[in-house]
Amino acid sequence: MKTEFSLAQLADPDIKEADKILRACVHCGFCTATCPTYVLLGDELDSPRGRIYLIKEMLEKDKPPTADVVKHIDRCLSCLACMTTCPSGVNYMHLVDQARVRIERDYSRPLTERLLRSVLAFVLPRPGLFRISMILARLARPLAALLPTPSVGASTPGLLRRIKAMLALAPRGLPRPGPAAGTVFAPLGRRRGRVALLQGCAQQVLAPRINQAAINVLTRHGIEVVLVKDEQCCGALTHHMGQDGDALERARANVTVWQREADGEGLDAILVTASGCGTVVKDYGYLLREDKTFAEPAQRISALTKDITEYLARLELVPSTQKGDVTIAYHSACSLQHGQKISQLPKELLSKNGFVVKDVPESHLCCGSAGTYNILQPDIAIRLRDRKVANIAMVEPDMIAAGNIGCMVQIAGGTSVPVVHTIELLDWATGGPRPGLN
Ligand code: SF4
Ligand code: SF4
């Protein structure tokens, strides 16, 4: 794609990067076929190629975007299916991230939307506040029936519709909090390694059992696990809302504490059980590339970061439980399959440990969760969820497995089949409790 940035614009490292990305696009349109919003809405401007044009215009003209441009960029799930499909290696992720930062900087959203986004950005990364908000949401749930229902139209949803979506996502009960930051879990038997486990923010409130399962499997196989003190939310939530000031501060804080741990007791890896977070932490090196102090340490941290399944694939897991034939529908989270290019590994681990694993039809399509997307774009999100649940039902599973808490909550909202994390199944297979019973 031909670009027309001025020399002055190209002096900005972000624009230089955007120019490189835009020039790689050859307008072939292969990406449209796998883009969930194009598949649903059929509008070129809701496809990757259409959005790339809109972003190019916005950056070249260097003027505040129009409401229409913002609407189409906001509808992007950042699922990155387009990056998997693109034959030219267009880095859509870094381009749309830049567009979101521009929108946040130059576009004035309606007041109610600004308020909602500010509340989400403030509450979600703080587990204490998030816990309180979930309790309040549960109490307010009966009011949801009075709020507007999903519309099939393509208009931007209003505040009440979004609040209804938020209430619908609130769980009926909250588990007790997991272990405190700073806890070190000793390995059983000879120590074979030492890792940090990202504690996450929403996940530690909604499902601390996921990291508990990871700790069980790791310590059972000789790995010491540390929950690093002073660790923060990875920054993914605010990063995807274009609030890079907040996201980069969190990235710097995490790089600092993980580096201290790696230089102290030592770390073989930083493990992540929420693939949405893992994709962003693996990108810290890129996000902080212009920061003289943090560029190098951030690259080191990104290189140390692994999805839990990547690390477990290097250990020989010892299956211990006879489970009989349990059929698992494996939902491939977008952040794992498109963001981190990990698609076969979790299925192989599950198969090797005695599960019957079934691929879900249209597995490349997002379930509609996508961070705060299911709150900000609830109508598209529900259509994607229902499509995903219908595809899952076709393989008639006993359980559904996924590697990302956002997908788990989203899919569980549309089915009665238990939705569990891959690591919970691996814990069960190697001597832990059967998941999906709570
Ligand atoms: S990230 Fe997903 S929703 Fe956004 S343009 Fe790419 S395929 Fe479409
Ligand atoms: S597939 Fe890649 S090169 Fe083709 S239009 Fe989409 S982004 Fe551009």
Task: Summarize the entry for a quick read.
With 438 residues, the chain is an alpha/beta fold.
Give a description of the structure.
- With 438 residues, the chain is α/β, with parallel strands linked by helices.
- It has four domains: 7-106, Alpha-helical ferredoxin (Fumarate Reductase Iron-sulfur Protein, Chain B, domain 2), CATH 1.10.1060; 111-169, no CATH class; 184-312, Rossmann fold (3-Layer(aba) Sandwich), CATH 3.40.50; 327-429, Rossmann fold.
- 50% of the residues lie in helices and 8% in strands.
- The longest helix is centred in the middle third of the chain and has 20 residues, at 244-263.
- Residues 35-37, 48, 51, 76-82, 92 line the site of one iron/sulfur cluster.
What is the element layout, followed by pairings?
Elements lengths: L6 H4 L2 H12 L11 H6 L6 H14 L5 H8 L6 H5 L6 H15 L4 H13 L3 H14 L18 H11 L14 E2 L7 E5 L4 H5 L1 H13 L2 E4 L9 H4 L4 H20 L5 E4 L2 H7 L2 H4 L7 H10 E3 H5 L14 E4 L3 H6 L5 H8 L3 E4 L13 H4 L1 H16 L5 E4 L2 H8 L6 E3 H8 L9
Parallel strand pairs: 2-3, 2-4, 4-5, 6-7, 6-8, 8-9
Antiparallel strand pairs: 1-3
The site of one iron/sulfur cluster has 13 residues, from α3, α4 and α6.
